[in-house]
Design goal:
about 25% strand; 12 helices; 4-stranded parallel beta sheet; 7-stranded antiparallel beta sheet; elongated; homotetramer
């Protein structure tokens, strides 16, 4: 969704971003600012209505909201909106946020949109969990909840003529950013993860702070206000799953690379759960940093024991009884020659349901492993 | 959109009804009541959000609205909704109606949904033009604006075992309908046009009256209230285009068949604009009843002079300069042998833009007609 | 499929011509000559391989074949091709024709393609039924079987600056056509039906004669050879279904307009089967010329009694038991007011399966007709 | 494409196998034997005609051919087929093979299909490069060219009730296979790569030998004949790209695992091109076995320095100038913290065009690497 200063332009679709945003779609989105959103799509075309950003017309012009997170008090806030006489067209708590922002702020000034004030009022109503991008006629707001539960980063889009800039992955950390005629900054970007900056020529600038409201205009970005925690003694509660599961390994949070965190988990595991074995290996591929960490700490060689068939999970075919019996064998191929008769420490990072580790160990044993396990897991 | 008493089930799409509602879609719509809507779709997938029925969650449960018409005071009502603090997600005045119905009625009782009261209040705010079907958790409301501008009919769905019923096209006209165990009535239907009743075994019962609120439940239908015109001396103003353009010829409005009205227009034209000619003919195919009426009144034989290529209008190809020059010749084929050297009275009913009659007359003259015209038009 | 003198360019698809040939497809088909084909498509994407034109590479360059008709000795010819050691990829007799044309002519000259000779040899092998367009590197051949069973017409594409030309529907009938610099002829067209010429600014020139091989090049067209019937006493056997069912009413065959033939059928019916009645009517819409012919001959007024729902046949939904019971009532709407209590002569032209006439008469009687029938049919 | 003993059933499509073969397609393919084919698809729907298997009707019934490879004398064989009078509908040399098999074998017996004989004759005409599966009415033939250029393996489909079987990855190597009532063999499978066997419960049996014709029926498989090389002193010439690029690492060729071959390449590289460095790393992910081999031989620790964005290559959007400048940075993310200031040996396996290694090294240097290279490549 883009904004050319006069109108909002929008394109939504179901499927991978590459599929939804083809060349003709990009061309149909003019403007000098824009926001976007991806989510795990569920089946059924009727679900398109749940696609974000949510965009509404308000008495102060159009506004669009992209939301990452889940509100802890979603039910109460939903009731509040319905009691105001506003009908909600989806079950999404992101729509609730959008309508809360639309309603005139109770203690705001009557004239003018005063979006910072509205956002501030909305943040009084709910403390957890949201990172938001909010586009109005004039600017974009980047907002992070007071707990800092979900990540939100600011990046600097640079002229590619000045290649030395590219090397500074971290860039300078600035409180407020500017765009002036004489420097190499082309614009500012806000994203949940910093890994994306790199791939279109931007560098990480800083994270939006817990509770912070940042305003981005054509002139740069500015910190407007910080909402502190109701209980100021509570520590920031950054979502642990970003480190161990969600985020891409080359993303940076709180000054550290996700990959490094995962590797240190593996090292710690080696300290807490040492095992005698000939090999350390990974369930590809998110557990690889942890397995390499385990290997580094113990000195046991790192060897690959499984290949992953990337297409299995995407099949449209209901597995037959026969295929169901095969289970993980459909997804992972054993590299038998690599581990025949050897004792293997197998590191995995998926404790979510915990129902694949057993079958994988059985698969490796059938394929010739001497001993596998004990069942280790980096977040156990 | 259907309602099984607990949940609403919805399917929407772009394209012809036959294409959008295929077998699997129908099967995914359980329930004992339902509403639907068709509109001229405009290009672009993003327009799907404008598809009706609009459905919202309210403090009194889900509600869905299908709207035929255009509000004369749409702009003012839109502003009213926005000032209440409700963000609107489309530019449609049907969404405005939906949110007006959602907001608690100003002078309503505080407890209970009282939908009839809400609808009544909404009707105080706008008198023109709408026919509505409104589905709530328990029932469906059929509403027609006080001017009766758009049509709305009630039909009776009958058991097909009692074929004599089928013959009574008009059925009995009843004020309120019931469904009891011992009769042949399977349910009640509301539709803009009565022509559709016939094709699934229903018969016309009566029209919803101007300003009337009718409630349909599993027990039957009941007239709840009638909102009278602000200015009671104004006559009902049924949209003339329904008779001359929109409606299917086998529909019934105000006790008369649309086809008959069109034929009488042709007869009247013969009285007001008599012409000496050897043939009367039609621009196929909506003008045929009028042409037959003209022939009937004057005794001049009715002869077909044009065939219509039904596919031309639907082409996806930008016409080249050459094809543009050909104009109506792409759409109509002259049956030259039928009118060579003859004087032709050609009756058309499309005064909307009035830019095809000239070229059609030229086409017929080139193809051999002795004299065509004068340019006659049933609503001139 | 087009030919730019060097390469063939092709686009095929399933669906209506308007859908398959969108603007980008037309643009991807450069060249100064081309052939195309439409057929009733059957369900299933795998059927795309059956789409014509069939195009093959031969020892004398590419060749493409479009075929209208069915070979009476298809089975024997298929066996002949298979025995030559050629594998056939479809069950179509059009592919058999294509491979027969590819095989070197048994008594032909050894050097050079000599396509006229090959076509002549192929025509010795089968006398019925085919109209063909055959495109080679240099030219297009238009071929009609010796019986003249299927139609094939030659049209002249004219400059639109000379509008008087447009009026001459028949144009001059010429044996061989030329394109010279000083006249208004832009090219020559071959088509099964002449009705299409009109809609892109061409005029009918003449029919390809039974057994004739016509060659079209950039210089014009030329009659190359005529294959006479094995039994020369047999009369030409033009397919009667073209007149009564397949062709568009504004097409011309053997000097007469299809519409006029149908109307004369109705007149003849009036002579052979006179009935006392108040109204003559049609089962819309192909039977209308016959009904008007019946009315013309008997003086009984022509009145419309049925509207046709054009969308019913195209539904993707399996009709439920209830809808099956309704039968023709789903497709035709009775205009009851037009015939209540009257005796109706109803003319239909579909004797193909003959199973709709009975239900339609029942439908009209239920809707109030005094007497309908006797069951009349123009080809009975 | 399947065969139920009476008819062939076929489904083809463009796209990933998972997309083309959805559940309804699988259900529409009954039978007790079948063959399939995948190829890199090129853009444009008209290319569907090139999809294999090629299926033709012959004088001895239907035959379908799947072909992996490219004929060295394709041009001469194509001319041979065209001179026989057979038109070819594609430019594919797989269609040429199909028509060569169709033509009656020159020195074959006149009666009966004798497919083994036909295949043998065809193999006399071309020695390189093809692996074929050929399905006839009764059986499937698996054929490998006399040079053994492309791989072809036979696998045994086992009952899943006997889990001990699953562990024997290699199974027993048998010359001819049988299916009897009292054992656990459900059927036999032929595939280019053995990696697929594992994932639906089959085990590798043996490779089809260079020049061998193997016949598979419902009773088992049987070696029919072996065509020896024209020049018997030439060694078998297995395609080296299968080991270093095409094949999945868990596939087995000539008794060795592809992964192991790649790892040994890395070890050999360490011997031939030793470098002083702090880290060995990979360009993910096909070069990983070689990098681990290099690390194993030299003792230099293996560390990951790049993440791969799996979606970049699949975008439908033409890269803008800006994105083009970014080049490999769009596809690979540097894990800077892992290698800042360190000297890195980077192992890659893609010498195909050789134009990505330079930019990747530049990318790593900009991201902080002390020294990268020299540019090493496992097949250099």
């Amino acid at each position: 969704m883009t904004n050319d200063g006069k109108r909002f332009h929008q394109h939504k679709g179901m499927g991978l971003v590459n599929y939804v945003f083809q060349e003709q779609h990009i061309k149909s989105l003019p403007g000098h600012m824009g926001i976007g959103h991806t989510r795990y799509s569920t089946a059924g075309s009727s679900e398109l209505v749940n696609c974000q950003p949510f965009v509404v017309d308000t008495i102060h012009g159009h506004m669009a909201v992209g939301h990452n997170g889940e509100l802890v008090n979603a039910k109460a806030l939903r009731k509040k909106v319905l009691l105001q006489g506003t009908g909600l067209s989806t079950g999404s708590d992101s729509e609730v946020i959008t309508q809360l922002l639309t309603a005139t702020p109770p203690c705001g000034e009557p004239d003018g949109p005063n979006w910072t004030g509205r956002i501030y009022e909305m943040m009084q109503l709910t403390q957890l969990a949201y990172s938001l991008v909010i586009m109005t006629q004039d600017c974009i707001y980047a907002v992070r909840d007071p707990h800092g539960n979900r990540p939100l980063c600011i990046g600097r889009l640079m002229s590619l003529n000045e290649s030395p800039q590219l090397s500074r992955l971290g860039g300078e950390i600035v409180e407020n950013g500017e765009i002036s005629d004489d420097d190499s900054t082309l614009g500012w970007i806000v994203s949940s993860e910093s890994c994306g900056f790199h791939s279109f020529g931007a560098s990480m600038c800083r994270e939006v702070k817990p509770g912070e409201i940042v305003k981005l205009t054509t002139n740069g970005f500015k910190s407007m206000r910080i909402v502190s925690l109701e209980n100021p003694e509570k520590p920031p509660s950054f979502c642990i799953f970003e480190y161990v599961y969600f985020a891409r390994p080359d993303s940076m949070f709180e000054g550290q690379m996700v990959y490094s965190v995962r590797q240190r988990c593996g090292e710690q595991l080696a300290i807490e759960a040492p095992v005698e074995a000939e090999l350390v290996s990974t369930v590809p591929e998110s557990a690889t940093p942890a397995a390499l960490g385990y290997s580094l700490r113990t000195g046991i060689p790192y060897v690959e024991v499984l290949t992953k068939n990337r297409y299995v999970g995407r099949t449209f075919i209901q597995p037959s009884n026969r295929l169901r019996k095969l289970g993980v064998a459909r997804k992972f191929g054993p590299l038998s020659m690599n581990f025949k008769g050897k004792r293997v420490v197998l590191v995995d990072d998926s404790i979510v349901r915990g129902n694949t580790m057993g079958p994988i160990i059985k698969l490796l044993k059938q394929a010739g492993a001497g001993e596998v396990g004990p069942k280790l897991n980096i977040v156990s």
